[in-house]
């Protein structure tokens, strides 16, 4: 039972934190005014995509916590979450596209590092992070394009 309570706490932390930050830093008129690349997705896709990704991130974190709560993999997981939660306030809140690009590059690196570190011990957690890595790689390209165009 305690395992599932821990999962619930991970879901609340990740999904709740991500949604709160997302609502606090909605794109708004500033983002709408930016020149965008032709591959920029419609705004409505971001909410559902991040909701699903946050669930996957939480489950991978929970599995890692159960295996080794103070290990290197858990620390990397924590770093990626901090960077994830930092990106929206940097990009949308402070409107700093360049510094946000630095944050997202570090985020992508931490995601890839997490996958590499857990791959041999917990392949499922690695796979749970695969869509996250793909989405953040795309978001990195989008962030870089927005910096270039604006």
From TrEMBL:
It is found in: Membrane. InterPro entries: TspO/MBR-related_sf (IPR038330), TspO_MBR (IPR004307). It holds the Pfam family TspO_MBR. The keyword Metal-binding does not apply. It is a multi-pass membrane protein. CDD domains: TSPO_MBR (cd15904). The chain crosses the membrane at residues 44-62, 74-94, 100-119, 126-149. Keywords: Membrane, Transmembrane, Transmembrane helix. It comes from the Bacteria. Belongs to the TspO/BZRP family. This is Tryptophan-rich sensory protein. It comes from Mesorhizobium qingshengii.
């Amino acid at each position: 039972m305690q395992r599932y309570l821990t999962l619930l706490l991970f879901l609340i932390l990740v999904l709740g934190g991500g949604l709160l930050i997302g609502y606090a830093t909605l794109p708004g008129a500033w983002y709408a005014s930016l020149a965008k690349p032709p591959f920029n997705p419609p705004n409505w896709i971001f909410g559902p995509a991040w909701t699903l990704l946050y669930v996957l991130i939480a489950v991978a974190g929970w599995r890692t916590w159960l295996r080794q709560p103070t290990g290197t993999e858990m620390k990397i997981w924590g770093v990626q979450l901090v960077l994830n939660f930092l990106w929206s306030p940097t990009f949308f809140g402070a409107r700093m596209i360049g510094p946000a690009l630095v944050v997202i590059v570090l985020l992508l690196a931490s995601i890839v590092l997490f996958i590499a570190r857990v791959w041999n011990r917990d392949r499922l957690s690695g796979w749970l992070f695969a869509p996250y890595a793909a989405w953040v790689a795309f978001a990195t390209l989008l962030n870089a394009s927005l910096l270039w165009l604006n």
